[in-house]
Structure formats: structure tokens, C-alpha cells
Write a structure and sequence with these properties.
single chain; about 425 residues; alpha/beta; UDP-n-acetylglucosamine1-carboxyvinyl-transferase, Chain; 2 domains; four-stranded mixed beta sheet; 14 helices; 24 strands; elongated; binds uridine-diphosphate-N-acetylglucosamine
Length: about 425
């Protein structure tokens, strides 16, 4: 197992590039199950979750190759079996359910189980697929789904769910008739998935709004598609400029998709401007000051940036408040930040942060993907050495983060834990 050793207190300066979006690439790759001809996907980040997905697709009968951020998939004979060993390492594996049912009317997918940031059930995925004619049994920890042909339906989600919307969207594109998804998620990654499906021949409208209409088509063919840039990685880099008092030009930064994050960083005192070459993020003359953030479905402030902005709040002047509204139990970075000298008090889903003049380096433990990013940010700003342990979480979502940050002035090395 690896750890990152960070020598803090260096100002970051220069250009840094954003990779393809993990959360957009995952559903788009699962959508290759729906295709009846080869497909090419570019700008696919080189991340553990992507390789897990490719392994799973291979087992499901969709052989894929990965080279130089490009995936090529071939249609094959589908095998409706997603084993627990893979599913337990990546909850997004459940995204094969909709495509398998749409294509062959059969799916046996291990139930993902809980994870570090809460229970994260899949009831909305199953409820929607049942309305389209699927039937589910639970057998030995596996969801066993079967159906004749899926038929279009009106599905009203009980809550906004990104994965649920993606699974139903993929199920609906090959179903008989029209499906209407209401209270659908509006996240840019859903729009990217829908745009990909449309490029393959699907008939979808309303993506990016809370009502998505899908008219089923008989088949979909492969295309060439570039995955959108990762807005969370980009947001993390903007935050890195702020916490180190630096100046970063973030290239391939999806500016429009980051408006809620940028607004908060500006409120904290950063200057963020959109240029043709990228987004320029600078820490203002007066340093950072506290703010209030509440996580919400898109276009609200993303839960996936909550831990990172909290790292900034720990060294911002005055008080800040964070309310986590999407996931229970997503404050596990708090105790680790406190080991570095942060002053934070958690009560239910609210964290009160009182900024301190400086953090002090310490050994800390990463508990999930975004918590890890927040500890890296804290380590960049801290006096002395920070060791971030269990960084396999970080490797699930950030491509070569230490190389990218070192190229703009950080001092981070990867070592064996
Ligand atoms: C996706 C993202 C994740 C992000 C999250 C919220 C991927 C691979 N992951 O996760 O990075 O943090 O969106 O923006 O894209 N829920 C239910 N029942 C369901 C489905 C969800 O109760 O059937 C609840 C969840 O427990 C959670 C909330 O709804 O509290 C939102 O979850 P959801 O949007 O589905 O998150 P994911 O798709 O798992």
C-alpha cells in the first residue's frame, strides 16, 4: 500500500491540466453493453475505477482495450454476471444492470453493500426498472433481474440520484415506447452520457433538466466520443491555488459546470477568471476568509467538493459552516484535519469550522476519495511534513495527482506505507 509524503508550505504556480471525468466515463463505458458495433472512447482517465470497469465489461462479454486514454470496445456475446469481487471495489458496477436488462433481459449483479460515506442503497434503480417491466430477486447477495422486453414508463424518482438516472436512461434507450424520467439528476455527467447515447442513435431530450424523455430505438451503433473533463479534479486544482496562496492556470477546466464552486471560492477571496487557455485561479491579496456551503444536487454545490473546500476553510479567516445534504457520514476527513490543527465541530450534518493561522503536518489516514483530496490540500498548506496514508482511495479518482502538483511547485513523493 502506498502513502503520499507532502512537504508543505510551498506556493503553487503555473499550468495544470485536467483529465477526463471519471464519473462521466464510468456510465459511458457501461453503455458500451448497449451497442451492436465497435466504439472508441477518448479522454478516458487512467484510473483504478476505469480499469475495474474494463475488467468487468470483459467478464460481461464486451472486450475492451485501453491505450493512451482511449478505450476501444467490441460487441460480444453478453454474459449477465457481475461478480462480487469486482462490484465490492466499485459501487458504480451497478450501472451494468440497466444496459444488461435492456439488451438481454437478464442480469445477476452482486449487491454493492455499504461504503465509507453512508448506506447508499440502489432502491431507486430497482424501482424504476420494475416500472419498466423488470422483476428482481435477491439471491446470495446478488440482485437477480429479469424481464421480457423493457417497456417505456413514467418514473418519478423519490430523490435526485445520479446513478439511478444513469441506469434508467441506459435501460430506456432500447425499451419499447417512451420513458419519462422525472426528478431526474441534472449533473453534467448525465448530459455527457445522454450526448454519447444520442451520438450512437438514441432519441433523448431534456438531459440537463429534471425531466428527461427517451423514445426507445431498436438498436444503437458505436461511434467515437470524447469524455468531458473532470469538474471535481478541476475544482480541486482551483482550491489548491487558494490554499497555497498561489496562481494556477487550470487547463481543460469545465468552467460553466463549476459555477457553484467558483462562486464560493470567490466569496472566500479568490480571483477566478475564464481565459481561452484555461481558468486562472489566484489567491487574493487579503488571503482566504470563511464562508457557508451547503451541498446540493447540480447546479448546487457538489458533495464531491465538500471535503476540499473544508480544507480551505480550516485556514481561512473567521468562521465557516458546511452542511452536507447528500450523504450521511461524509465528514470522515474532519478528525484527520483536526490532527493537523484544524478547529472543527460537527453536529449532525453540519460542520462549524474556525480558521487557524496555519496547519501543522501530521500522519493522516484517507477514508474515501474526496476526503483524500482534502488531506492532500491541507498537506500542501501545512507547516512541515504530512503523510497521507491509504491513498488507494485517491488513485481511484485522481490521475497522477502528485506528478501534476509537483510540476507546479509542490513537493510530494509516493512511498510504501
Ligand atoms: C454519484 C457520484 C458520486 C457523487 C454522487 C452525488 C459516480 C460514479 N459517483 O454517486 O461521486 O458523490 O453521485 O453527486 O458518478 N440514494 C438512495 N437510493 C438510490 C440511489 C441513491 O437512497 O437508489 C441516495 C444515496 O444514498 C445518496 C443520494 O441518494 O444519499 C445521492 O446518491 P446518488 O446521486 O445516487 O450517488 P451515486 O450515483 O452513487
Amino acid at each position: 500500500m502506498d502513502k503520499l509524503v507532502i512537504e508543505g508550505g510551498r506556493t503553487l504556480n503555473g499550468e495544470i491540466a485536467v483529465s477526463g471525468s471519471k464519473n462521466a466515463a464510468l456510465p459511458i463505458l457501461f453503455a458500451s453493453i448497449l451497442l451492436d458495433s465497435p466504439c472508441t472512447f477518448s479522454n478516458v482517465p487512467d484510473l483504478r475505477d476505469i480499469h475495474t470497469t474494463l475488467k468487468l465489461l470483459h467478464l460481461l462479454g464486451v472486450p475492451c482495450t485501453y491505450e493512451n486514454h482511449t478505450v476501444r470496445s467490441e460487441p460480444g456475446e453478453l454474459i449477465p454476471e457481475a461478480p462480487y469481487d469486482l462490484v465490492r471495489t466499485m459501487r458504480a458496477s451497478v450501472l451494468c444492470l440497466g444496459p444488461l436488462l435492456a439488451r438481454i433481459g437478464l442480469a445477476r449483479v452482486a449487491l454493492p453493500g455499504g461504503c465509507a460515506i453512508g448506506a447508499r442503497p440502489v432502491d431507486q434503480h430497482l424501482k424504476g426498472l420494475e416500472l419498466m417491466g423488470a422483476h428482481f430477486d435477491l439471491e446470495g447477495g446478488n440482485i437477480l433481474g429479469s424481464c421480457e422486453k423493457l417497456t417505456g414508463a413514467r418514473i418519478v424518482f423519490d430523490m435526485v440520484t445520479v446513478g439511478g438516472t444513469e441506469n434508467l436512461l441506459m435501460a430506456a434507450v432500447l425499451a419499447d415506447g417512451e420513458t419519462i424520467l422525472e426528478n431526474a439528476a441534472c449533473e453534467p455527467e448525465i448530459v455527457d452520457l445522454a450526448n454519447f447515447l444520442v451520438a450512437c442513435g438514441a432519441d433523448i431530450s431534456g438531459q440537463g433538466t429534471s425531466v428527461i424523455r427517451v423514445r426507445g430505438v431498436p438498436s444503437l451503433s458505436g461511434t467515437s466520443y470524447a469524455v468531458m473533463p473532470d469538474r471535481i479534479e478541476a475544482g480541486t486544482f482551483l482550491a489548491a491555488a487558494g490554499i497555497t496562496g498561489g496562481r494556477l492556470l487550470v487547463k481543460n477546466c469545465p468552467y460553466d459546470e463549476l459555477k457553484a464552486v467558483i462562486a464560493k471560492l470567490e466569496e472566500m477571496g479568490m480571483s477566478i477568471t475564464h481565459h481561452p487557455g484555461g481558468v486562472l485561479a489566484e489567491c487574493g491579496q487579503l488571503g482566504l476568509s470563511g464562508t457557508e456551503v451547503e451541498t446540493r444536487p447540480y447546479p448546487g454545490f457538489p458533495t464531491d467538493m465538500q471535503a476540499q473546500i473544508m480544507a480551505l476553510m480550516t485556514v481561512a479567516k473567521g468562521a465557516s459552516v458546511v452542511e452536507e445534504r447528500i450523504f450521511e457520514n461524509r465528514f470522515m476527513h474532519v478528525l484527520e484535519l483536526m490532527r493537523m490543527g484544524a478547529r472543527i465541530k460537527v453536529s449532525g450534518h453540519t460542520a462549524m469550522v474556525h480558521g487557524v493561522p496555519t496547519l501543522t503536518g501530521a500522519p493522516v489516514m484517507a477514508s474515501d476519495l474526496r476526503a483524500s483530496a482534502s488531506l492532500v490540500l491541507a498537506g500542501l498548506a501545512a507547516r512541515g511534513t504530512t503523510e497521507v496514508r491509504r491513498i488507494y482511495h485517491l488513485d481511484r479518482g485522481y490521475e497522477c495527482i502528485e506528478n501534476k502538483l509537483n510540476a507546479v511547485g509542490a513537493c510530494i513523493r509516493r512511498a510504501e506505507q
